[in-house]
Structure formats: C-alpha cells, structure tokens
Amino acid sequence: METIKNNPIIKKLGFNRIILFIILLLMYGVFSVIIPGFASKARLMSILNYVYFLGFLALGVTFVIATGGIDFSIGPVMFCCALMAGYSLNTFGMPVIVSLLLTIAIGVCFGCFNGFLVAFVGVPPFIVSMATMNIAKGLGSVFTKTQSVSWPQSNDPSGNGWFRNLVKVNGIPTGLIALAIAAIVLYIVMNNTRAGRFILCLGSNKEAVRLSGVDVRKWQMLAYVICGTMAGIAAIFFVSAYTTVQPGLGDTYNNEAIASCVMGGTSMGGGLASIGGTLIGVFVISLLQEGIMAMRMTKEVQMIITGLIVIVFVYADVSARRRRN
Fold first, then answer.
1. 195-215 burial string, b = 16+ CB within 10 Å, else e?
2. Which helix (H) or strand (E) holds 284?
C-alpha cells in the first residue's frame, strides 16, 4: 500500500481523492443497477442541479475550515440571500441583474460580519456561525413577511427568466462549467497566492504566523468573506435550478457542504485543504441524496447517513494527524 501511495502520479493526484472518486463511480454503478431509470438523463440533470449550489457552498466553507474555523450559517445565509433578492425583484420591480448582484452583496455582508467577529473581536467561530445562522433565518423571514418567494420561470413572458441559462442551455449543463471555473480560480487562490498560503498557515499554527509579523486578522477575515461570497453565488444557482425559496430553511446544506469538504481531504483541524477533493465530495453527497430520494427514503435518512460520513472521515483525519505527529 505504501508503494502505491508513494507513486509520483498517485501523490500528485492524491491517494484519498482517487479512492473517493472510485467510491463515487461505484455508488453510481450500484444505484444504476438497483434503481430503474437512475442512469437516465433526467436523473443526471437532477443530480447536477444539486451539485451546482452545494458545490459553491462547499468551496466557500473550505477556506474557513482551512483556517481551523467553522461556519454553520452558510445554508441559511444562502436562503436569506435568495429570499431578500427575490422579494425585492417581485415587490419593488428591481431588474433581474440587480437582484442577482444583490444576492452576492448580501452574502458578502454576512461574510464580513462573521469574519469581523471571529478575526477582530475574537468570538469563537462556532458561536459566531450559530448566531449568524439564526440571524439569517430570522432576517429572511422578516424581510419576506414569512412568505415563500418564487423567482421567474425560464418561459416568463417578460423575459426575466434568462438567468436560468446559468444552469442549463439547450440541455448543456452550463452550471457545471461555471462551477469548474470557480473551482479553478479558488484552487489558484488557495495554492498559488499569498492569501491562500497565509490562510493555510493559520490553520497549521496561527500563533507562529502572528509572531512572524503577519496580520493574521486580515487573512482570517478574508476566508469568511470568500465563504459568504460563495454562499451568495450558491443562492443564484439555487434559484436558477429551482423555483421557490422558503424562509427558515437551509440547515441541512451546512452539514452536506462540510461533509463534502471533509470527505475531500480538508482537515477539520485546519492547515490542509483540497479544492478538487471538495468537488468530488460534493458529487458523492449529491449522488447519495438523489439515490435516497429514488429509493423513496426520507430526508431524515440522508441526514443520518451524512452525519455518519462526517464522523468516519473526521476520525480518519484525526488518526492521520496522530500518525504524522
């Protein structure tokens, strides 16, 4: 096994990522065999619709976890962005492009809020994210008067449904292209820029970075701003793939996004992150969600399985750290 792991090609691709990709293929094969019609184009498109918004959420929270922090507010923040911007679109007659930009802006504001409290005030990330989760839920509900918000359909007579081309154009999954571009950009930021190096160093040894003269607060806050921005973009792809957004929801997606990161090789202790691994993890979670639905199991079953997956991969991460130490 060690010989395989030390192979230059395997080391370059990442042994854990290769194993996770094999698991993804095996899962798809098993579901295709035991569930009639699972390999159909319609089912594949349903999986991809889930991948789009969950992928942006997971990519964003990867930066926060890399610093050794956590953010449980990303799901509700995504819904809050979609609710407030959608309500403004429907009630105030705001142009679609402005509403989409507002969606991202709200996400950025939440990211700045979380980052400021964690980096500059010193509130523990767990407390901040739990508080922000409730704030996002409440703000979205109050702003929309606890009503659901529907974004324009693709066949809307006014032409306001053009934004749905972000996920699919004539059967072409454009959302997959957008997600890939975002992943490439964030990979470069994480691995080839000063900001990414400092973010990873914060997770490895924050005090050592601080003593070396680096303003750790700035880079720690940047990780949360990136996370909030990606939550806003995720909201755009959520409303592009689906129609209605309901207030008070979004909690489930926190666990799924974090599970995708951990499965992909991002360490919960910080200092180690994998953008490519996170994407593979997103596909695994999305495929699992679709498979459970196809087998007519409840959402609660998926929550149980996701929770168990997180425990298994966190245990594997802790064990690996012990061996390295």
1. ebebbbbbbbebeebeeeebe
2. helix 275-294
C-alpha count within 13 angstroms, C-beta hemisphere, residue 216 = 20
- Tens of pLDDT along the chain (325 residues) come to 555 555 666 666 677 788 888 989 999 999 999 988 888 888 899 899 999 999 999 999 999 999 999 999 999 999 999 999 999 999 998 999 999 999 999 999 999 999 999 999 999 999 999 999 999 999 999 999 999 999 999 888 888 889 999 998 887 889 999 999 999 999 999 999 999 999 999 988 888 888 888 889 999 999 999 999 999 999 999 999 998 999 988 888 998 999 899 888 888 888 889 999 999 999 999 998 898 888 887 777 777 877 787 788 777 767 766 766 5
Residue 171 to residue 187: CA distance in whole angstroms: 28
DSSP 251-283: HHHHHHHHHHHHHTT--TTSS---HHHHHHHHH
Give, in degrees to the nearest 5, the angle at Cα 296 between 251 and 249: 15
As a whole number of angstroms, the distance between CA 47 and CA 284 comes to 10
- Cα–Cα separations (whole angstroms), residue 49 to 42, 212, 273, 319: 11, 45, 25, 35
Sign of CA dihedral 299, 301, 304, 306: negative
Contact 71, 61 (CB under 8 A): yes
Distance CA 254, CA 241 (A): 19
Chain CA centroid to CA 22, Å: 22
- For 94, the token pair is 């705001």
String of DSSP letters for 61-121: HHHHHHTT---S-HHHHHHHHHHHHHHHHHHS---HHHHHHHHHHHHHHHHHHHHIIIIII
| Cα separation values, 174 from 86, 168, 184, Å | 22, 5, 16
Residue among 132, 133, 110, 125 at smallest CA distance from 268? 125
The H or E element that residue 149 is part of is strand 149-150
